[in-house]
What does this fold into?
Amino acid sequence: DHIDLNFGCPVPKVTRKGGGSALPWKSDLFRDIVKAAVDGAGDVPVTVKIRKGIDDDHLTYLEAAKAAESGGAAAVSLHARTLEQSYSGHADWSAIARLKEHIESIPVLGNGDIWSAEDAIRMVDETGCDGVVVGRGCLGRPWLFGELARAFGNAEAPIVDATLAFVAQAFRRHAELLVDFYEDELRGCRDIRKHAGWYFKGYPVGGEMRGRFTQVNSLADIDALIAELDLTAPYPGEGVEGPRGRSGRARRAVLPDGWLSSRTMNSQESADLQEAELDTSGG
It folds into this structure.
């Protein structure tokens, strides 16, 4: 449906090679990548996700978003934190509002600290953004997107009563889909393990039981554990909302040597990035 260029990753193994949220600092490289992607994508829309910048002294989001707009991007989204912040603290929604005032011809989407449909509505009201992007907020709550759809006016979106029975079956269905995706039951069940804490956050599922969910090797293992749960437990309310996933604390940005000395690429940096292209470790 579209191609999203993610310039938001703060992981050191990515930023130390000039990738992720370090990259927009090099304005010529950023501009060239966006334009090349748009030209190569043809009729497929290209969207661009960015952060505010490296740190509070090296902000890039207004310039980068303008370059994305000029380069033909279909939309731009802002995670309203800096690289240095990583996932710590609170997102600066005022930056989303400034970006909305700065960009005229394409939608501006806000990202950061949306844990519920109410948060999304409040972000749009406070910033004027055209829509929202959800990251960590959907971990263990994939039905959040239905809640968002309903909040934004889709009366046909289902209303979920997230009892423990519902959540347990959603967890099981998620595992089943992972197994289908990987065509490997063990791999799919290993992948679902990390989601157990997010799905059962706030519910009467003790630490020992959650630990057992993080050791499952088969769908039968999951079924056996679900059978031990008190599936009559109701939705616990706000206790299941709020921050989830990565958080941590702010840390010094890990960048290539001399990266901040210039906003444009030099020959050595270009050569180093060519080598980085050979690294497919992800990020």
